[in-house]
Specification:
It is a single chain. This protein is an alpha+beta fold and about 280 residues long. The protein has seven helices and twelve strands. It is an enzyme of class 3 (hydrolase). It catalyses: a myo-inositol phosphate + H2O = myo-inositol + phosphate. This is inositol-phosphate phosphatase.
């Protein structure tokens, strides 16, 4: 199977002024370090704030979620005045910003704790995610992985670094590799059967940001997600693209930030993974 290149695929990414990239990376890295310290100190010790929605009993919100997002918004408002911030806990509302964030040339997108149920349980699989996004997709992406004491950072055209060390994916077939899947129960069962027949393993651990990040780091051959939100994946999508992974939607069309289904794969794995996905959902 080959992936058909859609003639309506996104054009080449827009150029970004070098000073903006450097400043955004520096500020995002500082915020990620702040978040990592807070998450490390409080994971497994904080109780959820209120009751999770009945539709998803694990969709908790904690004081840490809110505190980290407010801190992020304060810093970004001071460093990048007029640039909207879109976040999981407070939506597109931020001091001095236009609520029409998606119409602005740039916007920041933050998930203060991706994998909150894991964070509450003390399970070491949660992250802080921050991205600067323009009309071409993620410009800067930073993920804090507190349990592994790692900060992953990328910027358009500048590659990826893990605690300062450059990272690049290696092409390979999916057989013998792991695929991170964040899907509903019905989708997971079908996709797992298809992957098992292709001799690949599935891992579902509850953080979309870290699932995609594993592909950028070369730990997983692919990640398949559905039902995600922009703040779940924007930072990790930047890492994946800059590391040399392929990012497509559920139909196999290249898309830097797919909205519904998102498939991220190392070169050499995409065709098989996309075929399994189609077989499981078709």
């Amino acid at each position: 199977m080959t992936v058909q290149q859609d003639p309506g695929a996104p054009p080449a990414p827009l150029p970004v002024e070098a000073g903006l990239l450097s400043h955004a990376l520096e500020v995002a890295g500082r915020l990620a370090n702040d978040a990592a310290e807070v998450i490390t100190a409080t994971a497994g010790r904080e109780r959820p704030d209120g009751t999770a929605p009945a539709a998803n009993p694990f969709d908790w919100v904690t004081d840490t979620d809110r505190t980290l997002e407010r801190h992020t918004r304060r810093v970004l408002a001071a460093e990048f005045p007029g640039v909207p911030v879109v976040g999981e806990e407070y939506g597109a509302l931020t001091e001095g910003a236009d609520p029409g964030a998606h119409r602005a040339p740039y916007r920041w997108v933050v998930d203060p704790v991706d994998g909150t149920a894991n964070y509450v349980a003390g399970f070491p699989w949660c992250a802080y995610s921050l991205a600067l996004v323009d009309a071409s997709g993620p410009v800067v992406g930073v993920i804090a992985d507190p349990s592994r004491a790692q900060i992953y950072a990328a910027a358009r055209g500048r590659g990826v670094r893990a605690n300062g060390v450059p990272v690049r994916v290696v092409p390979r077939a999916p057989a013998g590799g792991l695929i991170c899947a964040e899907l509903g129960p019905d989708r997971t069962a079908g996709f797992t059967r298809q992957a098992a027949a292709g001799h690949a393993g599935i891992r579902s651990l509850g953080s979309s940001a870290l699932a995609v990040t594993q592909v950028a780091l070369g730990h997983a051959v692919a990640a398949v997600l559905e039902g995600h939100r922009e703040w779940d994946v924007a930072g990790a999508a930047c890492l994946a693209a800059e590391a040399g992974a392929v990012v497509v939607d559920g139909d196999g069309r290249p898309d830097p930030l797919p909205r519904d289904t998102m498939i991220v794969a190392v070169p050499g794995a995409l065709d098989a993974v996309l075929g399994w996905w189609r077989a499981a959902t078709g």
